[in-house]
Amino acid sequence: MKDCKMAAYLSHHQKVLRLYKKSLRHLESWCIFRDKYRFYACLLRARFDENKAEKDMVKATMLLKAGEEEFWSNQHPQPYIFPDSPGGTSYERYECYKVPEWMLDHWHPSEKAMYPDYFSKREQWKKPKVRPHSLQIPGSFTNHQK
């Protein structure tokens, strides 16, 4: 359980924005030609803008629910997924090749000799920044004697 967190509560505004973005992404999958997509995207935006200033939260929630149901019934069966996005063809493709920083400490000196500039700078980065204790804690008790 890598990231075991509770799901964040989304406000009504955030839900509407996510519905709008999902709708646009699925509209891209339906419309191959860009001019046709732009036309329908403008119509979609106009539909969202009609109810933008709705003050009654009950009605706004009903509109959101109706919009989500309409999205569900009209979504694309195979939406376009960006390659690096979750579910895409190259999502986390190179994760297995990432080496943790501490592994470089175990390199043989002959391997480190191939990258002298990097390892000389790396040794400087690793040095702890030691400061006197009195400078680390403001109002420390070094000057107070009883």
UniProtKB/TrEMBL annotation:
<keyword id="KW-0496">Mitochondrion</keyword>
<keyword id="KW-0679">Respiratory chain</keyword>
<dbReference type="InterPro" id="IPR045292">
    <property type="entry name" value="Complex1_LYR_NDUFB9_LYRM3"/>
</dbReference>
<dbReference type="InterPro" id="IPR008011">
    <property type="entry name" value="Complex1_LYR_dom"/>
</dbReference>
<dbReference type="InterPro" id="IPR033034">
    <property type="entry name" value="NDUFB9"/>
</dbReference>
<feature type="domain" description="Complex 1 LYR protein">
    <location>
        <begin position="14"/>
        <end position="72"/>
    </location>
</feature>
<dbReference type="GO" id="GO:0006120">
    <property type="term" value="P:mitochondrial electron transport, NADH to ubiquinone"/>
</dbReference>
<keyword id="KW-0472">Membrane</keyword>
<comment type="subunit">
    <text>Mammalian complex I is composed of 45 different subunits.</text>
</comment>
<keyword id="KW-0007">Acetylation</keyword>
<feature type="compositionally biased region" description="Polar residues">
    <location>
        <begin position="137"/>
        <end position="146"/>
    </location>
</feature>
<keyword id="KW-0597">Phosphoprotein</keyword>
<dbReference type="Pfam" id="PF05347">
    <property type="entry name" value="Complex1_LYR"/>
</dbReference>
<keyword id="KW-0999">Mitochondrion inner membrane</keyword>
<comment type="similarity">
    <text>Belongs to the complex I LYR family.</text>
</comment>
<protein>
    <recommendedName>
        <fullName>NADH dehydrogenase [ubiquinone] 1 beta subcomplex subunit 9</fullName>
    </recommendedName>
</protein>
<feature type="region of interest" description="Disordered">
    <location>
        <begin position="127"/>
        <end position="146"/>
    </location>
</feature>
<dbReference type="GO" id="GO:0005743">
    <property type="term" value="C:mitochondrial inner membrane"/>
</dbReference>
<keyword id="KW-0249">Electron transport</keyword>
<keyword id="KW-0813">Transport</keyword>
<comment type="function">
    <text>Accessory subunit of the mitochondrial membrane respiratory chain NADH dehydrogenase (Complex I), that is believed to be not involved in catalysis. Complex I functions in the transfer of electrons from NADH to the respiratory chain. The immediate electron acceptor for the enzyme is believed to be ubiquinone.</text>
</comment>
